[in-house]
Amino acid sequence: MGRWSRLNLLSLGANYDRCVPIYHSVAQGRTVPLLKTLVSNYCTNNCTYCAFRCERQTHRERFNPPELADIAFKLWEQGKIEGVFLSSSVEGDPDDAMRRELGAAELLREHGYTGYLHLRLMPGSSRDLVRRATGLGDRIGLNIENPEKTALAEIRPDIDPKIDIWRRLRWCREEADRRPGLVSAGLDTQFIVGASDETDNQILETTHRLVTELRLQRVYYSGFRPIKQTPLENRAPCPESRVYRLYQASFLMRDYNFEFKDFQPALDEKGFLRDLDPKLALVQTNPEIFPVDLNSATFKELLLVPGIGPKTARRILTIRHQTSFESLSDAWKKLGTRVKSAAPYLSVGGERQTRLNDFIHPK
Ligand code: SF4
Predict the structure, then answer these.
(1) CB neighbours of 86 closer than 8 A, spacing ≥ 6?
(2) Does the keyword Disulfide bond feature in the UniProt annotation (predicted)?
């Protein structure tokens, strides 16, 4: 198979730009074209949800490092991509798969590539290779896939989560901390949501650990989709709304310092996020907290308000150091009218614009 046909087979989630598979990632409000590909889809492992599990009949291909580096460099030189994401199935020993991936990354840098490089590590790879990856990638990560040990043993029978994943993620953190300035875009991981009976509660608890203990920059959630000729081919797909709510909750943890326990009121009795913006769910279950007074609310209380993010909360505190809010209309003048969307949840000296109940349960 020719190199471009192989790229079509091994590229991940891409759209096509004149027959070249390009993945469009969104970063800081901007679309960034990436070459996002597997180095190989030969796999020795047998994860139950995966199209490339070793027991499944499928077309298998691999790149050798020089040809993959060459393809990526040419696409970057031509301005078709701004970044490269490399991952791989685990062909043989995890270190062999890592060496092929890092070999391509090293050659790419040697060609003079200065674009964004995102490397997905193999579970169980050696410390030496984790160290090499931190010297090459702007972002590195390793997929955790599931928060629950028993479920992981079922869906990823070849992998020990404690040793092959958590220990390696810790190594990533330690290596990145040892050499400040490297891995500038941080560490990441991914859950596959709905491949087992894990709850959102379990996913959020693990996400909180990953964000606070290992300071992961980003946690991705990929909704499970059944694949024919796998043990999970008859399992229902994960609803998109579930993935969306998990992202909303994880951004509240990462950007707003919400803690895992803060989400408890937003979960239903089975431990799943209700299909509602988690902040609005918190309003519904804690109406007694609102409205919060703009002149006395703490930073954390302000962050609970739908429509107020960390930037606005900090501005409110800065304004309060110099003066106070005299009324809600004075607040809109000082903070800008965009904050008016938060009006139902705010008060100034007892003054409220609208009855909160009308917003929680609109007629
Ligand atoms: S190790 Fe990766 S590629 Fe291999 S079966 Fe598991 S998920 Fe699929």
Answers:
(1) 37, 38, 39, 68, 101, 104, 105, 117, 118, 119, 120
(2) no
